[in-house]
Amino acid sequence: MWYPWRQCVKNIHFSSRCLAKKLKGKTVAEQRWLARQVKDPYVKASRELNFRCRSGFKLIEIDDKFRLLHAGDNVVDCGAAPGAWSQVAVQRVNSAGTDPDLLRGTVIGIDLQHIASLDGANFLSCHDVTAPSTHKKLQNLLPNGQADVILSDMAPNASGFREMDHEKLITMCLSLLELSEAILKPGGSLLCKYWDGIYAQRLQEKLSSVFGSVRPLKPNASRKDSSERYFLAVSADLQKNAGSINVVL
């Protein structure tokens, strides 16, 4: 059963009285943040559908359009905390075995932070996705040591300097090429978040060197004023660059 997310978002209404009550006694910055949260339909919908955060709708929207996830797929979710993307992946690859008539997949989430347990997912909390030891653990946990899909919604802690944060996130995305070389099946896919900026084209070029198709995406669930984007890279051909992937900007 697919999440009825479109209807849920559509049916949400807000109370100005409720908003005023929440804003009382808050600083200006807190008031702005709360006002945005209360008015955001995806925040409310995430509560109604028991998502751990609103970001789950971004993956749902992308997967609805491009059919990235299939029953029986083995998925690695990088930067998984608090777990909304893993929630979506568990449902769509049937890793909890909810539908006995479908193939049962695998979902493994990784994050430097703690991730609360989730039925159908195996979490590696307090693990660095760039570490070779983490790659080895993933190989041991994945069926045949390989993943069909790598997901990444990870991002660095914001420093307040946009260009610096952009470069850090691009570097994190590039590290996923090494992870792909270690665990991704031939023909597999990678979906990774980046912040738009001067190095975005460089990242796309590097992804294109090992994937048959790379396209930039901005789902509707991403806030309009955000530089957040995603690259969807499909049809991995890592053999042609095996052992020689350059992840330096």
UniProtKB/TrEMBL annotation:
<feature type="active site" description="Proton acceptor">
    <location>
        <position position="193"/>
    </location>
</feature>
<keyword id="KW-0489">Methyltransferase</keyword>
<dbReference type="GO" id="GO:0008650">
    <property type="term" value="F:rRNA (uridine-2'-O-)-methyltransferase activity"/>
</dbReference>
<dbReference type="Pfam" id="PF01728">
    <property type="entry name" value="FtsJ"/>
</dbReference>
<dbReference type="InterPro" id="IPR002877">
    <property type="entry name" value="RNA_MeTrfase_FtsJ_dom"/>
</dbReference>
<comment type="similarity">
    <text>Belongs to the class I-like SAM-binding methyltransferase superfamily. RNA methyltransferase RlmE family.</text>
</comment>
<dbReference type="GO" id="GO:1902775">
    <property type="term" value="P:mitochondrial large ribosomal subunit assembly"/>
</dbReference>
<comment type="function">
    <text>S-adenosyl-L-methionine-dependent 2'-O-ribose methyltransferase that catalyzes the formation of 2'-O-methyluridine at position 1369 (Um1369) in the 16S mitochondrial large subunit ribosomal RNA (mtLSU rRNA), a universally conserved modification in the peptidyl transferase domain of the mtLSU rRNA. This activity may require prior 2'-O-methylguanosine modification at position 1370 (Gm1370) by MRM3. Essential for late-stage assembly of mtLSU required for efficient translation of mitochondrial DNA encoded proteins; methyltransferase activity is not required for this function.</text>
</comment>
<dbReference type="GO" id="GO:0005759">
    <property type="term" value="C:mitochondrial matrix"/>
</dbReference>
<dbReference type="InterPro" id="IPR029063">
    <property type="entry name" value="SAM-dependent_MTases_sf"/>
</dbReference>
<protein>
    <recommendedName>
        <fullName>rRNA methyltransferase 2, mitochondrial</fullName>
    </recommendedName>
</protein>
<keyword id="KW-0698">rRNA processing</keyword>
<dbReference type="InterPro" id="IPR015507">
    <property type="entry name" value="rRNA-MeTfrase_E"/>
</dbReference>
<keyword id="KW-0808">Transferase</keyword>
<keyword id="KW-0809">Transit peptide</keyword>
<feature type="domain" description="Ribosomal RNA methyltransferase FtsJ">
    <location>
        <begin position="51"/>
        <end position="234"/>
    </location>
</feature>
<dbReference type="InterPro" id="IPR050082">
    <property type="entry name" value="RNA_methyltr_RlmE"/>
</dbReference>
<keyword id="KW-0949">S-adenosyl-L-methionine</keyword>
<keyword id="KW-0496">Mitochondrion</keyword>
